[in-house]
Amino acid sequence: MSFSGHSELGAAENPKAYRKQEAIWELFTSECVYFLDQLMVLKEVFLTTLTDLQMRECLQDIDSWRLFANLNELCLVSFGFLTSFLRVIKEMWTNPDSCSTQSLLELLRKAFGESICHCLQKYCLNYSTAILYLDSLKLREDFGFFLKWCERNEQCRRLQLKDLLVAPLQRFTRYPLLLKNIGKKSCSEAEENTIQSIVDLIDRAIYDLEGKVKWLDNYQKVKQLKEALVWLPVWEQDKRAHVPENLKHLLKAVTLENLLSHRILLHDGKLVLIENAKMHEVYLFLFDQFLLITKIKRSKKKSGVVESNPLRLAAGQELEFLLQESCSLIVLDQPISLDRLQLKNIDQLNATASGLPNSFIVMHQNRYQQCIGVFILQAQTESVKKAWVSEIEDAISSLLKQDSQQPRLKNSFLESTQI
Fold first, then answer.
1. C-alpha distance from residue 196 to each of 117, 162, 173, 179 (Å)
2. How confident is residue 87, by pLDDT bands cut at 50, 70 and 90?
3. Half-sphere exposure for 324 (CA within 13 Å, toward CB)
4. DH domain location, by residue (predicted)?
């Protein structure tokens, strides 16, 4: 079946109706590509092969749901949508009247309202877990052989499993654009409004998903961060705290890993710490209740990651790059509770006089308003500095507002040891 072959005469007779049919055909053909070249390749080349191997007692410990989630359901939903869509298209070509258009609108409303959005939401919620699980499985020799064998299949068209797993997310965000294109070329205002209502329905589903995915991403990021953080014992943090070697075993190593559990990471990034007239590369983590300053200790063993200028990586990629490079993040001093933190801006005049452009000061106070720590931090640009100052001020304001409405329990946050 060819759209161009069927509608050559229609283009001259009714250009607007032709453009509308063109937009409808684009939605249909792109769904065919998504179903055949992505979903079915994932299912037939990867999932079915894995299932067959597991029936033969190979790779039995691999959790197929963690990798592919509800892929079978996605295939069924997409196939059902295509089958109904093709029937409606044939109907529109045979009888191009308002009834066939109404059939299309009903199909779109039912498909996106009852199955497509819900099914894609379920898949997207598992995506971050699937990618992390895939990365961990790649370290295994047996799974590596399985992956290479599958990816060599000509149906993959040189795409890797990771490229195919992201396809449903990309398709989800493309639906509103394809439907808006049909709406713009509609023949009536009522038809355009109906399509817009379907677009709004998809947008709400994506917006609702973004909140859940953001929470999951935060959870996974904090989980990775725990492995990279190094909490120094007290005698290494404070040189005055001399502890004889034979007594160190009495002091339990406090890693404070639980401190990060259930925290929301609001902002993170690389800055420079001015300490003893020297500049140290540091990485800051702004959580919902405290600020964590860490020194970056680079591994001598380089990974295969290539990056010409890691200092100019996009926001959100800096931490990923450091973790890939097997860097350690040594916690400096102690977490600074936001209700004990004061910011001091270094204005242009003082910045020029001290030779510290784009800098600001973080002061750590105890409960008696005594300053127990000062950190002079320098950003790469003025805009990065302003972003940090704004994020910290907003976090402090939010925490104080929350405390005024519902005070935290005494045990909900670790008090400063220097009070």
1. 16, 33, 15, 8
2. very high
3. 13
4. 19-212
